[in-house]
Amino acid sequence: MTGSPLARQPNPLRNPFRPGNGVPPPYLAGRDQVLAEAEDWLLEEPPLLANWAITGLRGTGNTVLLGEIVQRAERAGWLTLERELGDRHRDDARLAEALVDDCEALLARVDAFAGIGQAIERGARFLRPRRVAVGELSVEPAYESGRAAPADAMFASFAALTAALEASDRRGALLLLDEAHLLADDGQRDRYPLSSLLAALGRAQRQGPRVRVVLCGLPTLSLNLKRARTYAERMFRHVVVGNLPLDAAGDAIAVPLLGSGRSFSLGLIDHVVEASGGYPYFLQFAGAFACSRIGLSRVGRADFARVEEAMIHELDLAFFEDRFEGAAPTEQALLLAMERAGGRATLTRITREAGPGVNAAVGLRRLIDKGLVYRPTRATYDFALPLFAGYLRRRAELTALS
Ligand SMILES: Nc1ncnc2c1ncn2[C@@H]1O[C@H](COP(=O)(O)OP(=O)(O)OP(=O)(O)O)[C@@H](O)[C@H]1O
Ligand SMILES: [Mg+2]
């Protein structure tokens, strides 16, 4: 295709799309309602439910939504702190350390605004507080090992932050924890990060939720919360971030193109919306790929068809391949068995499909830990990556061919 505009590289026209991780999109489509609800929630005193749990599959826009809530909360007079949790926070003591640090950072900001530096004792007291008593809230933890229990340390810092906020003209403080599905209690390892956090938060919020939390992560988070504490239901509003409805998905493609010097035909936009299932990451990826590979100012369905196979291949490499390769061979076999079982399936069905010699229950637990699988209900398993089944089918076909 030498000389064809399709092959012109580098492409001289601007590429408005932003496929990436937590990267704000050029146009945030389909999230107006949930953001309006977040704004209302920040104004309510006290709110119906003190905290939010935002869940969605990989690439559906959890992190971007969290960033938007941060901006709105700051504008509404809240102090905010966003943290991405990692594997180390599965340990309650490490989680407590991190949250104590976060509360310290927020306290410093309250102080800076309110000039109440002396109202609360400073130091490493949250990790080993003798007594933290401010306002109505107090804690006198009993030490066994010389350190406060993680839940006590977290409570002490939430309580101190609450008290400082009460003495200031700040509305409150919002702690936003991304990848919070990692906080599953694990009785076998004697680790209870989520229970500890909920116990501390519930206790600190009894006097009024000046300190609120937004937990965000894979759908497993909802189940983890229910399991950790029966009263979690009364503490969290559950918000599910999903694929965009058709019109919003169309806007996610069409709006960024305005003023970019290019346009896509309606037929092409419809096709991308349909093929992507409205998943935000894929919409950004398809838009970006088309803009990068097609040097036309008006791109039609047929132009796109010529690069589509290459795009799917690139998407497989960028989004799926590393994650699949990161799984052990038996786990990969389980993923393929799940695909044959139709994606969402019960343990019995997956076990049958995987065949003898595979401990499906253990393998699935590992896949959940790796963020590849989640449990939509107690009895079923599904892929945590949207359109993963299609990738596995393509992979199986390639393997069969070779
Ligand atoms: N509402 C939206 N409209 C258009 N694009 C969006 C929207 N939400 C997210 N995106 C885009 O989708 C991509 C993925 O977003 P984000 O990183 O927030 O997803 P995520 O759910 O946090 O993914 P992961 O689970 O992998 O962390 C980004 O490129 C982002 O710009
Ligand atoms: Mg994310």
Please characterize this protein's 3D structure.
The structure is a single chain. This protein is of the alpha/beta class and 402 residues long. It folds into three domains: 5-22 and 244-323; 32-240, Rossmann fold (3-Layer(aba) Sandwich); 326-401, Arc Repressor Mutant, subunit A (Orthogonal Bundle). 48% of the residues lie in helices and 13% in strands. The protein contains 14 helices and twelve strands. A five-stranded parallel β-sheet has the order 2-5-6-1-7, sandwiched between helices. A three-stranded antiparallel β-sheet has the order 10-12-11. Helix 5 links the parallel strand 5 (172-178) and strand 6. Helix 3 (92-114) packs parallel to helix 4, helix 4 packs parallel to helix 5 and helix 9 packs across helix 10. The relative contact order is 0.13. Mean pLDDT is 88; it is low at 116-124, 127-137 and 141-146.
CATH level-3 fold name of the largest domain: Rossmann fold
Order of helices and strands: HEHEHEEHEHEHEHEHHEHHEHHEEH
Bound molecules: adenosine-5'-triphosphate, magnesium ion
Number of domains: 3
The percentage of residues in β strands lies in: 5-15%
The percent of residues in helical segments reads 40-55%
Order of adjacent strands in the largest pleated sheet: 2-5-6-1-7
The appropriate CATH architecture of the largest domain is 3-Layer(aba) Sandwich
Structural class comes to alpha/beta
Number of β-strand runs: 12
Task: Report the top-level CATH class of the largest domain.
Answer: Alpha Beta
CATH superfamily of the largest domain: P-loop containing nucleotide triphosphate hydrolases
SS field, number of helical segments? 14
Largest pleated sheet: 5 strands, parallel
Q: So what's the overall shape?
A: flat
- Give the termini distance in whole angstroms: 28 Å
Low-pLDDT parts are: 116-124, 127-137, 141-146
Mean pLDDT: 88
Q: Report the radius of gyration as a whole number of Å.
A: 24 Å
